[in-house]
From TrEMBL:
CDD domains: ALDH_KGSADH (cd07129). Its EC number is 1.2.1.26. InterPro entries: Ald_DH/histidinol_DH (IPR016161), Ald_DH_C (IPR016163), Ald_DH_N (IPR016162), Aldehyde_DH_dom (IPR015590), Aldehyde_DH_Superfamily (IPR050740), ALDH_KGSADH (IPR044151). The lineage of its organism: Bacteria, Pseudomonadati, Pseudomonadota, Alphaproteobacteria, Sphingomonadales. This is 2,5-dioxovalerate dehydrogenase.
């Protein structure tokens, strides 16, 4: 079924050089070979996107929503074929990938509803007042699509953060054409999803330039895409080094563009003393389940746990050790990610003060074994290496002398996607004092749960200050993600016949702010 070709505006193109996907579990190459996209493919995909942009950006909202719904239906209809290929390429289990397909199509459908709702356009009307000194002009504002977006598929979510993942869904919702740089760890999965999107475009009678997929294993491909003058913004999930490189490429263009990169996070979790007195052993079990889920290949992994040293923390550490013994080693996404994980664990274990709490079972083949370390707060604070993300099933428990030391450590941490408080009623006063610190550090603050697992909703923030993301004012999950790919435009004293639909009196069909007051249609 797979062609191994790149999708350039509806045309499946082969190439001079090829690469093979690798079966995650065995490390063996799998068929077919995939074409490495050429610079001509990049140029043609970007040109087609630029050509299609005005048509797609101006599409009636109901038509854009219909396209997103049809794309969701077609991805869903791939069913087992998609799951099986994604399992082979990523090593992730069937249930997880079926769930991820549900999340991906659910996200597209939610975004289709959001398109039709229209409030994301941010419509505002300020009427003229000729009697004011100086006279006040008529001003009307809406948000328009930025232009074609380059999306980098992530390795760790081959569906929900890849070809039709959150970045693609939010860019299309905003009315932006998309050129995806597929992750070379799952090119077959990428091709199947791209085929579904292309078929939906065809059935909706939309230009094929709205969507292209380019595969490749050379950084030059990503660099060329980011530097193409027709690209207006970038969406990325991956390593800090990768995100920073793309930010540099974007900044070095004649016309710099925004890069929305979601990069690295250690997601601090605070175990408050009252809650620890109630349930240290239960917390430890849930902690080990969260850190080892999906071989720890989540940017929301609970990488750092902060607790006040004492009897209950000792109990927590003991229970974590016992829970780890039952955790099997799990296949990691790629050999490169497994090697990076092992080297990260070696570096962590070699730091002064790092004590091994316990490990999961050892595996054979390209597996990630779970590791938990503990360190005193003094050693943690004197060595920034403890705060580096180790991507995989590992975590560090930091033993603090009191909650003031917990607060000091949190204050000194880098930006995070999440921060978590496990607390009992008796902890609320102390937790209240920590909240302002957590708000400064993280995009999502969680009470009495674990950070892995991100719900796709209207109020979700999957973002955070650098280096969690390149722009802490944004989210890459949830409907607010659309805002990254929009730009406000104001029309001053524009004749009604020239105003866009929505800004003429009584045509908004959605929430609009008139002379400062919010009005429903
Ligand atoms: N925090 C998180 O959510 C995640 C972190 N990671 C971290 O990243 C490591 C590698 O995993 P991977 O998923 O491959 O992530 P990478 O960041 O290495 O790669 C992601 C994508 O970006 C491209 N890319 C990376 N660097 C550059 C560059 N300098 N110029 C142009 N394109 C670039 C890659 O291209 P190419 O295909 O050519 O390699 C790939 O398509 C992991 O071991 C882990 O540490 C990974 C996934 C998620
Ligand atoms: O936890 C999730 O659902 C999403 C995590 C994520 O964005 C990531 O690992 O890249």
């Amino acid at each position: 079924m797979l062609t191994g070709k790149n999708l350039v505006a509806g045309h499946w193109r082969s190439g001079e050089t090829t690469f093979n996907a690798v079966e995650a579990a065995s490390g063996k190459p799998i068929e077919p070979a995939f074409a490495e996209a050429s610079s001509a493919d990049v140029g043609d995909a970007c040109e087609a996107a630029a050509q299609a942009q005005s048509t797609f950006g101006a599409l009636a909202l109901k038509d854009r929503a219909a396209f997103l719904r049809l794309a969701a239906d077609k991805i869903d209809a791939l069913g087992d074929i998609l799951t099986q290929r994604a399992m082979l390429e990523s090593g992730l289990p069937e249930a997880r990938l079926n769930g991820e397909r549900g999340r991906t199509v659910g996200q597209l459908r939610l975004f289709a509803d959001e398109v039709e709702d229209g409030a994301w356009q941010g419509l505002r009307i300020d009427h003229a007042d000729a009697g004011r000194t100086p006279p006040k002009p008529d001003l009307r504002m809406r948000k328009i699509p930025l232009g074609p977006v380059a999306v980098f598929g992530a390795s760790n979510f081959p569906l929900a953060f890849s070809v039709a993942g959150g970045d693609t869904a939010s860019a299309l919702t905003a009315g932006c054409c998309v050129v995806v740089k597929g992750h070379p760890a799952h090119p077959g999965t990428s091709e199947l999803v791209a085929g579904a999107i292309s078929a939906a475009l065809k059935e909706c009678g939309l230009p094929q330039g709205v969507f292209s997929l380019l595969n490749g294993t050379d950084y030059a491909l990503g660099e060329a895409l980011v530097k193409d003058p027709r690209i207006a913004a970038v969406g990325f999930t991956g390593s800090r080094a990768g995100g920073l490189a793309l930010m540099e490429h974007a900044a070095s263009r004649d016309v710099p563009i925004p890069v929305y990169a979601e990069m690295s996070s250690v997601n601090p979790v605070v175990l408050m003393p009252g809650r620890m007195a109630e349930a240290a052993a239960d917390l430890a079990q849930a902690y080990v389940a969260s850190l080892s889920m999906g071989a720890g290949q989540f940017c929301t992994n609970p990488g750092i746990v902060l607790a006040v040293d004492g009897e209950h923390t000792a109990q927590f550490i003991g229970a974590a050790r016992a829970a780890l013994e039952g955790v099997p080693a799990q296949t990691m996404l790629t050999g490169g990610i497994r090697d990076a994980y092992e080297s990260g664990i070696d570096t962590l274990g070699a730091q002064t003060g790092a004590e091994l709490v316990g490990t999961g079972a050892e595996g054979t083949g390209p597996c990630g074994r779970s590791y938990v370390y503990t360190v005193s707060a003094a050693d943690f604070r004197s060595n920034p290496a403890f705060e580096q993300e180790v991507f995989g099933p590992s975590s560090i428990i930091v033993r603090c002398t009191d909650l003031d030391e917990v607060a000091d450590i949190l204050s000194g941490m880098e930006g995070q996607l999440t921060a978590t408080l496990h607390m009992a009623q008796t902890d609320h006063e102390a937790a209240c004092a920590l909240l302002p610190i957590l708000e400064q550090r993280a995009g999502r603050i969680i009470a009495n749960a674990w950070p892995t697992g991100v719900d796709v909703t209207h109020a979700m923030v999957h973002g955070g200050p650098f280096p969690a993301t390149s722009d802490g004012r944004s989210t890459s999950v949830g409907t607010l993600a659309i805002d990254r790919f929009l730009r406000p435009v104001s029309y001053q004293d524009m004749p009604a016949s020239l105003l866009p639909a929505g800004l003429r009196e009584g045509t908004s069909g959605t929430l609009v702010r008139v002379n400062g007051t919010w009005r429903l249609p």
